């Protein structure tokens, strides 16, 4: 039966740590080319709907200051200190860099923007049942974001027709310059039946997610398929931390009953490991 429950506090904690860690893994490597991407050292004045280069051009020093503040905000987010302020600072600093040169505003940057916006409304200061009572808005903002994401990508592939259904488009992405070229992806791209199977799995997951996520009996399975889907992207395509950023809010997207069962199993495994370790240590 479809329902509209709210997530427990532990799901928000997991989401906070996973999301902050994924963003940190994405933004730390950008320091290697920070001046080239986001400062006057190599500015490309691009004219999209949202660009700040008409009014300001960051100096290399300013770009480094903004990046440092951004990094600090993510450390605070992971640590659980001043969470809402940290999210606001990340939102402001990341936009001030990415809108500087919109050519670098990638799909997962846009996704992270909507995720961060939703998480600003999460019940970070609440505990226990109070978190469940106050966490509805943030959870359903995230659910709406993911439903829109997968509806858009899934049905665009269906409209593309045979190229996606037969796996040809996916095979091309595995070897395309800029997004492909990883050894596993290159190897799999030459096996037609594997490409067809992966294409069907991709389209099926993306088209089923907007429906399955709302039901208790199917939400866990569709999120498990999502983890497989995004780990597959991580192993076969060169798209930064996109997969990790995408998976980070899954604890909150899961039906609360499904999440509690998962937590119970994790705790059972932890207890079993501790029972094994303690006699060995003694």
Describe it for me?
The chain is an all-alpha fold. The protein has one domain (9-281). Helices cover 71% and strands 0% of the residues. It contains 15 helices and no strands. It has helices spanning 9-27, 34-38, 60-79, 83-98, 107-119, 129-134, 136-160, 162-165, 168-175, 183-189, 192-212, 216-236, 242-247, 250-253, 256-281.
Q: How many E-type strands? A: 0
Oligomerization category of the chains in this entry? single chain
Shape verdict: globular
Largest sheet: none
Task: Average the pLDDT over all residues and give the rounded result.
Answer: 85
Q: What share of residues are in beta strands?
A: under 5%
- Into which percent range does the helicity of residues fall? over 70%
Task: Count the DSSP helices.
Answer: 15
Give me the secondary-structure category.
mainly alpha
N/C terminus separation:
50 Å
> What are the low-pLDDT stretches, counting only 5+ consecutive residues below 50?
none
What integer value in Å does the Rg equal?
Answer: 21 Å
The ordered string of helix (H) and strand (E) elements is HHHHHHHHHHHHHHH
Count of distinct structural domains: 1
């Amino acid at each position: 039966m479809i329902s509209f429950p709210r997530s427990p506090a532990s799901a928000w904690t997991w989401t906070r740590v996973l999301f902050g860690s994924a963003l940190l893994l994405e933004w730390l490597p950008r320091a290697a080319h920070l001046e080239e991407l986001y400062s006057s050292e190599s500015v490309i004045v691009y004219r999209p709907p949202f660009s700040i280069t008409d009014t300001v051009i960051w100096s290399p020093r300013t770009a480094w200051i903004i990046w440092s503040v951004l990094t600090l905000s993510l450390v605070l987010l992971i640590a659980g200190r001043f969470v809402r302020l940290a999210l606001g600072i990340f939102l402001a600093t990341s936009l001030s860099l990415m809108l500087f040169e919109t050519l670098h505003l990638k799909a997962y940057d846009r996704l992270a923007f909507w995720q961060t916006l939703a998480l600003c409304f999460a019940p970070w200061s609440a505990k226990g049942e109070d978190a469940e009572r106050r966490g509805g808005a943030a959870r359903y903002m995230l659910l709406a974001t993911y439903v829109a994401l997968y509806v858009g990508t899934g049905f665009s592939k269906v409209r593309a027709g045979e190229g996606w259904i037969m796996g040809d488009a996916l095979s091309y992405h595995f070897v395309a310059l800029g997004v492909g070229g990883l050894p596993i992806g290159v190897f799999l791209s030459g096996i037609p039946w594997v490409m067809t199977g992966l294409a069907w799995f991709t389209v099926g997951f993306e088209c089923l997610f907007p429906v399955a996520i709302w039901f208790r009996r199917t939400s866990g399975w569709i999120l498990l398929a999502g983890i497989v889907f995004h780990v597959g992207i991580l192993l076969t395509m060169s798209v930064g931390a996109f997969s990790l950023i995408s998976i980070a809010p899954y604890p909150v997207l899961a039906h609360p009953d499904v999440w509690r069962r998962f937590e119970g199993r994790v705790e059972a495994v932890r207890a079993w490991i501790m029972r094994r370790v303690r006699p060995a240590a003694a």
